[in-house]
Design goal:
Length: about 170
């Protein structure tokens, strides 16, 4: 029995089939994701739960990476926040949400950008949900953190790294 594919040409590779000698597509796999460290504090409860003025909320987000092997990397998304109103701390939180990612066929010059942009972009929705639930469980309305521009954060880190040697 003979099979025909690709417009009736016998023996031709099917469309989308890998070609011999062709470059393999870059691939990122999430092997695991987990809470590495988490803290939520509601230091002035129950007074802080009484309605008052709109709180001021300060957020800081950072990304760290660690190589586990040639292809596997641990990426940490650090999310810290503090809400206060009229000089009273309503709540504070600190979350380190991490993932282990496997990167195959990623060009060496793109690995750092993928680790600092794409990996945290994949982790962020889960970290956002953890923070939102903790704030709600602390007695406050859920905190809906706006989406983060990880490209801008990466560029900011690159600029800081370039200025650091010049300062010495």
């Amino acid at each position: 029995m003979s099979t025909t594919t690709n417009g009736g040409q016998q023996g031709a590779p099917a469309a989308g089939a890998p070609q011999a000698g062709a470059e393999q597509a870059a691939q990122i796999n999430v092997l695991a994701q987990y809470i590495k460290d988490f803290s939520f504090e509601n230091p002035n409860a129950p007074r802080s739960l009484q309605p008052s003025q709109q709180p001021s909320i300060n957020l800081q987000i950072n990304v760290n990476s660690k190589s586990l092997s040639d292809t596997d990397f641990e990426i940490e998304l650090l999310v810290e926040g503090k809400a206060d109103a009229a000089g009273t701390v309503l709540f504070t939180f600190e979350l380190v949400y991490a993932g282990i990612f496997r990167m195959t066929n990623v060009p060496q010059d793109a690995v750092q950008a993928v680790m600092m942009i794409e990996c945290p972009r994949l982790l962020f929705p889960y970290a956002r949900e953890i923070v939102s639930s903790a704030v709600r469980n602390g007695g406050f309305p859920p905190l809906m953190i706006d989406p983060v521009d990880f490209v801008a954060l990466y560029r900011q880190k690159l600029a800081q790294a370039q200025q650091a040697p010049a300062a010495n």
